[in-house]
Specification:
By secondary structure, the chain is of the alpha+beta class. The protein is built from 16 helices and 48 strands. The strands form 13 sheets. It has a 6-stranded antiparallel β-sheet. It has a 6-stranded parallel β-sheet with strand order 31-30-29-28-27-34. It has a 5-stranded antiparallel β-sheet with strand order 2-23-22-19-20, with no helix packed on it. The longest helix has 26 residues.
Length: 882
């Protein structure tokens, strides 16, 4: 596996990708202003909510919940515990109306379309009293021809949103045997045994998940506009790389043109390199017919600059400029930005019958390091480009190179993928199926999904970051492993077979075909976890793996991570709470407690009992917290240390294992979850640990069954000469043993160096008062450090260290120097309500060894010094637990 040019490519894909810019010949009129909304006066909810039946200003794009909040008609859905009292919104019918004028030129143009990029979900669209559309899919773009239906002034758009629960519940309840749903409602807005979420093409998480609230919202959630044109328009432009190596790239650019009439036109395609220099130009005369047609253009680039994932090279992107002309007149233009790269999903079979799962980019096998992305808000119109950039930059800063867009939300905005392209982050993209079982046996449902998939693959295929399309999240393993098939087979074997065949038709055939036709060759994977419809769905030896025996299921100790060695770990996780500052934003001090109602309302795992699961894992390693603040801190330490153990094991198992994506990256609201970034983008300790355990060069010192194995990790594509050092010392800094050596790390490798039994490491030292410290050193600098303890933290004789913290102004912000008189484990630096960004945190200190941390803040030095707090693990462990 440790080779860069694969000889036996299994479907090698050579691609170029684009970010689309609308053709200039299309005249665009945004329709975001002047909207109003109301609860339908004749709705069943109107009697109890009379204030909502009045027409009020609405924000488009937006949602009913955010519009109600803006007018003070509901409390903040994230503060306190208002969730139960807001479920009526998802049962109601909502109306939106907007008015707009059009100019004389628009009225004269022969073609005009209303474009709705997102309607959530069952929506009737009326223009000037005429029904144009009954939408039924939140994930689709709807284009409605309106030529001849417009007037100069006072056009009225009216959109009526129907409750998906009320629309679908009767047919679900009428089923003799029901297919498995996702999360039953705890609030009575739908029966627990008749869930509608998997029958409707709406973000699944709106119906609630184990990390987020249940807000079944509605609204015009993406842009709405009026497009008009005269002679022709460019409807699509995709670049397929036919060949790519260091010397040349051969490209085929497919241009899709819709023309109003026959005629001859000239097409010019110009290619600019990442520095803006023209590297190719093509001119061609074409005969256009009326209607939609495709034109293929061949171009070439000498010495092409490749697009690479972060850490492997530059994120070079080219510009393609297209002009369609007739005589001296320009009829249409378009511009694209593109990166050139190849992608392969390598699935080699080994001698034991296992089958690998590895991404190969430009011939280089990439160990995928990253996390799973969920929606950034329950109401995604509140997620702006700045928030996306902050989050994706945090992924890159934590040395991640891949994010998996999980299937229970929505297809992200163009901005998400554009930023991922720029930062070099690979994207594993699920189709939007998050759990349960789909009614794939229904041809109309499948056709709707195929249209949705075609919309989104065509919209997003222009991005070099996207390297996989995956059919769904956990539906195959749910059917095969969670009892769904067994239960339905027992109740109605004929229907069970029909359900499974519908699944195979949808995820094994239909979506695969869409990706093959539209995806420009990006690999397709039918379900995660899985091995693309292999017999076993969640197999450690074949395909990708979700591992939840730690935290979920039998709740095994975190050390069980070392017993599980998959081919690619696409989900594993431990939960924690966000910072006390974030918690204070939704719970007053008197509302904060492990079993306090508001805290339980923001703990969605096990219907609020997830804190007991956290407590189980905290008490195993650290003892019983003294108070809620210690519970939060220890939960974060538990999460960070446990995920680090697993991720380093995955990396040390390379090339057998080729990916480690923890659950989860971000939060949908402020609450308890498995995330490393909280809802506000603040780093939990896990994210700081990820920056270290995902580093390009890292040491993995893993203790299992009384034996510590040291493996040195390198993601570089060249050899890395390094040194390593072992020191065994007591907590006051007295060294009992020191050893080291030199090594040359092969490219893209996990390099075993040494292994030690506890007795060999410790000699006669007290295991409860000692630690083994492993350093990886390059060019005289320690680039990675691993700490190995010999017992659970609650049994260690950790002293309470005195940590001296000196904060000074520096040229580019501030410098914080820490110095401890003893080993200080899990040090956390906090500035309370003062905003500050630290270059490092959630770390451990050696006695007498100073550590400098860079700090950025808009606050002054005095304010920072007054707010500064430093704590370590010894401050939170109860003495009577030792």
């Amino acid at each position: 596996m440790a080779r860069w040019h694969i000889g036996r490519h299994l479907g090698l894909v050579l691609l170029a990708w684009l970010v689309a810019v609308p053709a200039l010949a299309v005249h665009v009129q945004p329709l975001a202003k002047g909207w109003e909304f109301r609860l339908a006066p004749d709705d069943a909810q109107a009697q109890a909510q009379p204030a909502a039946t009045q027409w009020r200003g609405a924000t488009v794009p937006g949602f009913v919940h955010t519009d109600l909040l803006a007018h003070g008609l509901i409390p903040d859905p994230y503060v306190g515990a208002p969730e139960a009292g807001l479920q009526w919104i998802g049962l109601a019918q909502w109306e939106y109306r907007g008015r707009f004028d059009v100019d004389a030129a628009t009225l004269k143009r022969p073609r005009a379309e209303l474009v709705f990029e997102g309607l959530d979900t069952f929506a009737d669209v009326h223009l000037n009293g005429e029904l144009l559309l009954s939408a039924d899919n939140s994930h689709r773009t709807w284009r409605l021809p309106v030529q001849g239906k417009l007037r100069a002034g006072g056009n009225e758009l009216r959109v009526v949103f129907h409750s998906p629960i009320r629309r679908l519940l009767p047919q679900v309840q009428a089923m003799p045997h029901r297919i498995a749903g996702n999360y039953p409602s705890p609030y009575g807005d739908e029966p627990k045994d008749a869930m509608v979420g998997n029958f409707v093409r709406k973000p699944g998480y709106h119906f609630g998940w184990d990390w987020g609230p249940r807000y079944v919202t509605a609204g015009i959630w993406r842009e709405v506009r009026l497009e008009s044109w005269e002679r022709l328009r460019v409807t699509d432009m995709a670049v397929h790389t036919l060949a790519l190596d260091a010397d040349a790239a051969e490209l085929k650019t497919r241009v899709e043109i819709e023309s109003e009439q026959e005629g001859r036109a000239r097409i010019e395609l110009e290619v600019l390199d990442p520095d803006g220099r023209r590297v190719d130009r093509l001119r061609r005369e074409v005969d256009l017919r009326a209607g939609l047609q495709r034109v293929d253009l061949r171009t070439a680039i000498e010495k092409p600059r490749h697009w690479w994932p972060v850490g492997y090279g530059e994120q070079a992107r080219y510009r393609f400029r297209l002009r369609v002309e007739q005589g001296s007149r320009t009829l249409a233009t378009a511009e694209r930005r593109t990166g050139l790269r190849s992608v392969e999903l390598l699935r080699e079979t080994d001698a034991e019958g296992g089958q690998g799962f590895a991404f190969v980019i430009n011939g280089v096998p990439i160990f995928a390091k990253g996390a799973n992305v969920i929606p950034f808000d329950a109401f995604p119109t509140r997620v702006d480009t700045a928030k996306l950039r902050q989050a994706l930059q945090a992924a890159r800063d934590a040395n991640m190179n891949m994010l998996r867009n999980w299937g229970g939300g929505y297809y992200e905005s163009d901005a998400f993928y554009e930023i991922a392209d720029e930062l070099g982050l690979l994207v594993w993209q699920d189709f939007m199926f998050g759990g349960g079982m789909q009614p794939g046996y229904d041809p109309a449902f499948r056709a709707n999904v195929v249209a949705e998939a075609r919309d989104n693959v065509r919209r997003l295929r222009h991005h070099p970051s996207i390297v996989l399309w995956c059919g769904n999240n956990e539906e195959e393993t749910a059917w095969k492993d969670w009892g769904h098939r067994k239960q339905l087979m027992a109740a109605d074997p004929v229907f069970a077979e029909k359900v499974w065949q519908g699944y195979v038709d949808l995820f094994g055939r239909d979506l695969r075909q869409v990706v093959a036709e539209e995806g420009l060759g990006v690999p397709y994977w039918s379900s995660s976890p899985g091995n693309d419809l292999d017999e076993k769905a969640n197999d450690s030896r074949r395909g990708d793996k979700h591992y939840w025996d730690v935290w979920g299921g039998p709740s095994l100790p975190v050390q069980a991570y070392l017993e599980e060695t998959p081919r690619f770990m696409s989900e594993f996780g431990l939960q924690s709470w966000p910072s006390l500052r974030t918690i204070a934003g939704f719970a007053r001090p008197e509302e904060q407690g492990i079993d306090a109602p508001v805290i339980r309302a923001h703990q969605k795992f096990l219907a609020g009992e997830g804190n007991q699961r956290q407590l189980l894992y905290i008490e195993r390693e650290y003892g019983t917290p003294r108070d809620f603040a210690d519970f939060v801190y220890l939960g974060q330490v538990m999460q960070a240390e446990g995920i680090e153990l697993a991720a380093l094991h995955h990396r040390a198992s390379r090339p057998y294992t080729m990916g480690s994506l923890y659950w989860q990256f971000n939060d949908v609201w402020p609450g308890a979850s498995w995330s490393s970034l909280d809802y506000h983008g603040r780093w939990k300790p896990l994210h700081h640990h990820a920056r270290r355990f995902f580093a390009e060069l890292a040491a993995a010192a893993l203790r299992r069954d009384g034996v510590t194995r040291l493996t040195l990790l390198s993601d570089r594509t060249r050899e890395a000469p390094v040194q390593w050092r072992l020191r065994v010392m007591d907590f006051d800094g007295r060294v009992h043993r020191e050893q080291g050596g030199a090594a040359t790390l092969p490219p893209l490798s996990a390099h075993p160096v040494a292994e030690y039994a506890d007795a060999e490491l410790l000699g006669g030292a007290d295991p409860r008062h000692s630690v083994a410290v492993f350093d990886l050193i390059e060019a005289g600098e320690t680039v990675s450090r691993q700490w190995v303890y010999f017992d659970a933290a609650k049994h260690l004789h950790l002293p309470r260290p005195t940590i001296h913290a000196e904060l000074r102004a520096a040229a580019d912000g501030y410098r914080l120097r820490l110095l401890s008189d003893a080993v200080a484990r899990a040090v956390w630096i906090d500035f309370g309500e003062v905003d500050a960004t630290l270059s490092d945190n959630a770390l451990s200190l050696l006695p007498g060894e100073p550590l400098d941390i860079h700090l950025r803040s808009s606050a002054g030095l005095d304010a920072l010094r007054a707010a500064l707090r430093v704590r370590s693990l010894a401050d939170a462990i109860r003495r009577d637990s030792r």
